[in-house]
């Protein structure tokens, strides 16, 4: 039985215009014509049309369907693999979009009756973040900042006070703040140097993000970037760039160092010598912590143990004082 173009269109749900287009490009050509010149499709034509529809549902472009059906295109398994990859990409993109919308929704829900300006600002900031981070990375970063919000606000207040007082980057006060700033960013980013680098790049390039959602304003970012660069210059005199990126500090580093500082001060006040059992036990705890951060590299551990000899400013703001460091180092000296 032969079908006219209108009949075939109704039975397949396609438009007559679509069937005419398929005929024009040679994809599905009618096998016959009526005496009046109307297109007539036989069972073979209909079967080919159904194959075209099936392949279109898989996402194949028309340009690839014709050669595939004619046996001139890529093998079916290659076509299917290509389509699976395309679908995987779409799934990733959809998941990424969903995660970003969830982040945006969570941020807006924390506020009260967000205005249109809030919406626009949040969308703009999310677009800025999206140029540097995937949604999963951004979720980690923002969660980290939220967990440390109180400390972050306190630190920004301290930096602002130092700026207002006209303190310079090479003062103990500013370097103590710089150490805290770098340490907080390290914790928020989970020690991921790639994330930290991209976060810094974003704030250097995207001035529109300055001061939004608790972020520091431009003048504070400039002040801290200058102070951080100065501190890194001091560190690079004692460590290589590879050393600095290889260090992996445990999350409880500050607490453990503060405990060692307090117990060492008590021991020193009680007249304990570096050769005493207590001093050697404290040194062992200190060395074990540094060993974790050094990843078991003995050469790097040795440089970390003698950091107090590098530059006094590097000790600014650290839990361990210069006196305690020297006492702990002496505790490992056989002649002590």
From TrEMBL:
The keyword DNA-binding applies. Residues 2-71 form the HTH merR-type domain. CDD domains: HTH_NolA-AlbR. Gene3D superfamilies: 1.10.1660.10. One of its GO terms (molecular function) is DNA binding. InterPro entries: DNA-bd_dom_put_sf (IPR009061), MerR-type_HTH_dom (IPR000551), MerR_fam (IPR047057), TipAS_dom (IPR012925). Keywords: DNA-binding. The keyword RNA-binding does not apply. This is MerR family transcriptional regulator.
